[in-house]
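Reopening this one. Same input as before:
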Amino acid sequence: MSIKLCKSFLFVVLMLQTSLEAQKMKLPILFSDHMVYQRDKPFLIWGWDEPGQPVTVELSNYRQTSTADDTGRWEIELPAQSMGGPYSITIKGSTTEILSDIYIGDIWIAGGQSNMEWKLNMGIIGAEEEIHNSDYPGIRFFEIPKIYSFQERSTLDSGEWYVSNPVNSPNFSAVAWYYAKKYHLETGIPIGIISSNWGGTPAESWVPEDELLVVPGYEEEASEILNPEIEWDKLVKDNSKNESELYRRVADTTDIIHFGVHLENIDISDWDIVDLPNSKPLTDFVWLRKTIDLKSIDNVQLSFGKPGKFTVLYINGEQVYSKIWSDDPRIIEIDKNILRIGENTIAIRTVEDWDNKTFIGATNQFWIETALNRISLEGSWNFSNKIEPPLPEITRFQHLSGTLYNGMIHPLIKFPIKGTIWYQGESNVVTHQYYKALFSRLIESWRDKWGYDFPFLFVQLANYQERFDYPTESSWAKLREAQTQTFQEVDRTGIAVAIDIGQANDIHPRNKKDVGERLWMAARKVVFEEDIIHSGPMYKSHEIHDNYVEVSFHFAENGWYNKEGDNIEGFAIAGQDSVFHWANVKLVGSTVVLSSDQVQNPIEIRYAWADNPKVTLYNSEGLPVIPFRTDDW
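Same output, byte for byte:
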């Protein structure tokens, strides 16, 4: 065959192959092996094929045929199915697809930011045993790929259903896992979790932008997003280059040695001095150096307290530790072979990509210890952030109004769900005054898109940051208040209070079991309408009696439990001077009686009104009192 004929033949083959590929039937990625479909809802399945192509779907004893329209799209609805499985589904068009191991059960979207995203394999308390015992074929997870968009997307680019077992479960959302496990074991219903969440994102990015045009605080940004004159695609493309450069540089542990700053004998005379741990943030690529004197090099450990997210440690020019996003131990074993008796040089390179605010070390937790003694590393360090070019500036488009709704929720709205579990709010603390209206709009807009009022269960923010021994103001408390108000005012919502399980120095508490199981208690009431107390005690009303106040609560009918005996903390009262003082507390039936020698005529009450309050009081169901205040000061 001549070269010319050969090329012609290959062209014909290529065109034929392309034509066949164009005709091949396609399904949305959610319709695949191991999926769970919502019980008791019409079984709607759709896809694409050659225009005019007849398509037949068979499930159990049901069979239905339709025809692809002029755009190639087809849609078939089968009768609602009761829970059960495993089934297979056969779809016949220009090609035949057989979906296997399909269950009919309850579908829940697990939404929010990093505390919902946090996986079982990320240091969760009790995770090792949980993963080992996670062989439950009736529980499946699908993780939505992270993507933001300035237009509503109708399809997903990737994703896969995973059956729960010890191989797959480590990558499941821990909160969603504990919720799904309780749900499945107590009802026998197959559970499908669609995990659609993104760490650090605010609530407004999960709301359709046109819905935000009427939400106070978000009208201007929503209007800008909808402005057709702004070339968002170009802005995104330019930003992507900066993002790639940023993450390449922050994660680098090899190229940075070319700067030579880790070596011992370099000139640092033009460096600044900074005290560590630092109270004011350091910015950009931070280099730190300190010389210490060691009397022993045996059994040497170094404690950072809390190293930054991207940190590299050198001693005497040798790299001894690096952390890139990991949850590494904060105490590091140092090989004696790189140490010497006498002077040793420590060099640290650290950077914070999130907000370009680096803090390093922690009080009483920043030291180096040998077999002989412990040497504090607190105090003066040589510091420079001019060794490397500054941190590239990027725009986090995933934080803008509507962008995650468009990319990660809108592709799901034709797929029926039972409800949503949600853990988010940390990124809205600084705008807490808008959160109630924003969060309520999020819930109602999702329900509008699906076309029915599904249950929406959410986690109230956990305690976090420094604890004070006197009553304080708190933006975190105000965000929690907005969440409580949403629970009170929006129908078919449930709240899981987490005010007792947080960690002062970590925004990601590792106790996810209680969170997931408290969500399940809310589901028992909101979804299954069981006659149970499903929430921690919630403020109902109060009566003032001269020098004391009597407070009544919902969800305390069965009595109280105080985990510290008679010492009940967290209640504060104030008089006309608006100064709050800790209250003496007595439990009388389902009420709480408050008084203070410092407040003769109390008029207002607060409970657990702090970033990180001490919590001791629960109802007999073991659920903590919901933080509240009666004032609007």
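So the earlier flakiness isn't reproducible anymore. For the record, The CA atoms of residues 150 and 232 lie 7 Å apart.
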